[in-house]
Every structure is written in C-alpha cells, then in structure tokens.
Amino acid sequence: MRVRTIGTGCRRIGEWLTRHAGWCLAISLTAHVLAVVTHPTEPLDLRVYHGAAPHVLSGGLYDFAVHTGPPIPLLPFTYPPFAALVFLPLSRLPWTATVVLWQAVSVAALLVIVACALRLLPARADGRGRARVLLWTAVGLWLEPVRHTLDQGQVNLLLGAVVLAGLASPWGAGRRGAGPEPGDAGGGASGAGASGAGESTRGAVWRGAAVGLAAAVKLTPAVGGLYLLATRQWRAALWAVVAGATATAVAWGVAPEESARYWSVLVTRTQRVGPLWSVRNQSLRGAVARLVGQDGAAVAPVWWTALALATGAAAWALWAAVRRGDRLGILVAVELYGLLVCPVSWSHHWIWCLPAMIWLAHGPLRRRPFARLALAVWALAAGARLVPLLIRAEDHLAHPSPYPALLAWPGCVYAVCALLTFLALAVGPAEGRARSGASGAGRPGERTGRPAQEAQGAPPSRR
Fold it and tell me: How far apart are CA 299 and CA 303, in angstroms?
C-alpha cells in the first residue's frame, strides 16, 4: 500500500511539472540570472579566448596566458589555431558585452542539447515532448558540469550543441535502414544498421561537417566520429574528415607558424593544460594518478589495465546499443568513452552527463534496475556538486603526494558514473522491438533493413 501511495504521489508530481514546464524553466532561468548577478564569477577560459584570439594574426598565440592562481597559475591558449579564428570576433567586443553574449548563447546551446538528445530517442505518443525539453533544460542549468562551463565561460555547451544538432538533423529521412520516417520525432541521425549507400547527401554533409568543425575547434568532439562509424554513416564520416581538414588548412594558411608549432609540438603536451592528478581532472588517467600515485612505477600497468577494462565495457555497451538501434544510447556510449580515455577531462567537459541522464530516464531500458541506479548516482554526483567540494579540499593541500585516499576515492565519481551507464546500456534485450510496447524502442522495418514506411504498408520514399 505504501509503495502504491508513493508511486501515485510521484505520478501526480510528474503531471504537475509537465503542465507547468514553462514556468519551471522560467524560474530556473531567473535563478540563474540572479546567481550570476549577485555572485559573479571570473570566466577565466572566456578571458583566454577573448585575449588570445588576436594573436593568431599577429603571432605568439601559444605564448599568451592569463595569470590565475595554484594549482594552475597560468592559463594558456590550448586549442588549435582554427579555434582562435572562430573566437576572433569576440575580441572586437567590450568585455562585459562578451560575457553577457556568451552566457546567453551558452544557455541557448543547453536548450539545443536537450532537444536534440530527446530527438534521438524513439518517438513517444504521449504529447510530453515539449515539456520534457523545458524541464530537462531547467534541471540541466544546475548540474555541476554545466554550472562549471557557464562559470568559466567554457565552449563545451556550444560545441555539444553543434555536434548534437548535426547528428539529430532531420535531413536525409527516408533512406534505407533504420532512418526515421518523415515527421518522426526521433530525428534524422541514422539509426544502427543504416546503409551508407542510401544516405542523403545533404544530411551526410551536415552531420559530418558538424562533427568535423567542432573537432577543429577543440579536439575532443572528434569522438563523435565513432557514432557515425557505429551507425554506418560512411559518407557523413568522410565529410567529418573533410570538414575538419579544411578548417585546419584554412587556419594553417592564416597562421602557418602557429599551426606548425601546435600540430608538431604542443598537441601532445597535456601538462600545459594543468596537473593530471588534480580532482578537477575526472578522466580515467586522473583517477589512476590520484589512487596509485602521480609518478610511481605502478602507474603504467594500472593505467593500461584500467584502460582495457573501460574499453571493454564501452565496447559492450556500444554493441548492445547498436543491436537495439538505440541512437542516443550509441552517442552516450562513445562520448562517455571519449571523456574516460582522454588524458585530461576537466569536470566541465562532462556536460554529456545530461544526454546520459536523459537516456537513463527516457530510453528503451529506463525501467531496468541498472538504469535507475546509474541515473540516481549521476543525479547525486552532478546535482550535489561533489567535485567542487573535493576541489576546495584539494586546494588546501600543497601538491599532495601521495594523494589522500579520502579525496582520491570520491574523486573517481564521474568515471564510476560512466561505467555504470555502460552497464545500463549493455544489460538489456538485444533487440529493442522485444520491448517496444513498454519502452518505445525500435521501429518497424529496422531488423530487415527495409524502410520504415514500407514496413508500415506505405510506399517507400524515393531516393
């Protein structure tokens, strides 16, 4: 009886939130603006973008740095030269205008990320799609990686929006495989099993260019190319390479010396970014450095073992998501894997926790125990702002060696969340249609490779 009462209460709360989703977002945005006005932060990364960009034309791009404090006393420009060209218009604006504009565009990018992540899920005929977008945007504003991105003036939200807008594009609908039908709210990114031969040229260019250009600004979005390969979007993957190479070539033509310096020397110098051992670094490499030691001989074998296990878990999750035709699941798997294996993944890089939480809450396996566990741990870790608490404790230590275990173990929190998400992705029915009535996974025609319209009795769309 008590469980039934709790369930009824949760449903009523959910229905109330759905009816008042617009007000929830308005309240969240108002609280965000008040927080920014009453407790302003210094967006140091934006300061670097703003100050370094002109040096791509005059020289000394990678000699520019903003003076801060320990453990990172200097913040240099660490992105490819093409990024400086993208940021160049910002340097023409007054600083206050730059901050206001960046905040506004970043919040809009958050809305795009949520809308596109939901678009990659199978369509649900419950009429709550718009409410989900508004509610998840309202919640997303207060997740730690998003707050950190906004506070630092980081570019993560903008690049995430570009990648997701490309992959969820409705262009190219009606091609062979698991692509969406016209009007399908699931979006236009190719589903698992999509045939490259039937892929729309316009859609392939847009999806590939989104990934390639984002990777030309900051290398980490290049992991989105794994999504294109996993969903067999060969033309889009090729266009990603073309777009990234073209952008890099343009930057090379504008700033040849800076480009040569970056690509031949600086691209592999991760120590320029900051200390790997800091709890700010939530990558697998950072977790190992804190748990085992920063420079000890035991680091290498533990690191390679952890990398092999994480790769196996990610591959298992990706394979299961591909088998189900689970497009958001595929994207979440590759993005979280990229964050894990990258040498440096600051906590603000983990904005992909939001699409992961959306999948865990609304995906085809949302009723599975592992999905509910992973969602709860993500909500606790990102919602309770655990990492900033650990950062404040770490900053009172003078280059900790060995790193205190009481900080090291909780400092693995995002890596643990990623591994739990891999488990939630992997443990479930191999074919989404097996539970399509309960979860909405899968689409007609997905298994045979026939267009969905043909499976539904409608004539197949012409290519």
Answer: 6
